[in-house]
């Protein structure tokens, strides 16, 4: 197998995206930053997919399934590690799972692991695993029908959008109420379009627009996203919403623009690993610091900035300690934390 090209810019993007996720959950300057922060998770999906399928494409046919298995196993190990470590938090966070008896709790746990997540924000792990498997096997079966798959996966994205943001425009509509209650925006359906786009770029099928034009399209869709968000806010009075229609083309164009930027970072491996550590743990830091800082009589925005900074710095310190300890004989298992 040939060596895959290094994309330090994508490591940096993953790091920035992880900070964006922390900012979302800190509610940091929501009336200014919120709509653009929502591209963080789509970028995670596209970057991971792009790098995976790049690796698969330069491998021998008999090696490809093993590369896929290794990728899935790595995500599953990361997920399982944090499920075990954060078990007390999970029981508290998902306390509603345990109020209706053992069998209801067991069903909720299984569905949580497969679809909605268990620990806070962990739906991303199951969505990555299931979404990648679906995209891989469908593209193997329907190799020449890219338009069909784009339509199918775009429809899944639209369905998630209407189960999240746009369902709030029709609070009394029974159909939208049913779709909203399914919480499709926290399942693998959200990941399919982005994982497929990542694969198309890895296959060299999306290079029909120049790098500069993707930059202009990013600006255009970024503005449209802002106006869509403001329009939605004017209609509902809500600004915290998961998926808006323009997030899909905006995040795709941003990824297309970013991936062609050539930079070299000495710390690219470290920030990539820290991003994987920060994502599943940041909610714990936010809960901890919010408990204390919100008791202090500070300006709300200053409180949020403090919570954000302290959470990131604390988890950075924890990660550095983990990196030191994992080299010790009895602490090698800590490498599964990222």
Describe this structure in words.
This protein is mostly helical. The chain has helices at residues 8-26, 30-37, 40-57, 61-85, 87-93, 102-116, 123-141, 146-163, 174-182, 191-202, 211-236, 247-258, 268-293, 300-325. α4 packs antiparallel against α7, α7 crosses α10 and α13 crosses α14 (300-325). The two termini are 25 Å apart. The mean pLDDT is 87.
Topology diagram in text:
Blueprint: H1 8-26, H2 30-37, H3 40-57, H4 61-85, H5 87-93, H6 102-116, H7 123-141, H8 146-163, H9 174-182, H10 191-202, H11 211-236, H12 247-258, H13 268-293, H14 300-325
Helix pairs in contact: 1-3, 1-13, 1-14, 3-4, 3-10, 3-12, 4-7, 6-7, 7-10, 8-10, 11-12, 13-14
Alpha-beta content class: mainly alpha
Helix share, percent? over 70%
Q: Give average pLDDT, whole number.
A: 87
Task: Tell me the series of helices and strands, N- to C-terminal.
Answer: HHHHHHHHHHHHHH
What percentage of amino acids are in beta strands? under 5%
In whole angstroms, how far apart are the ends? 25 Å
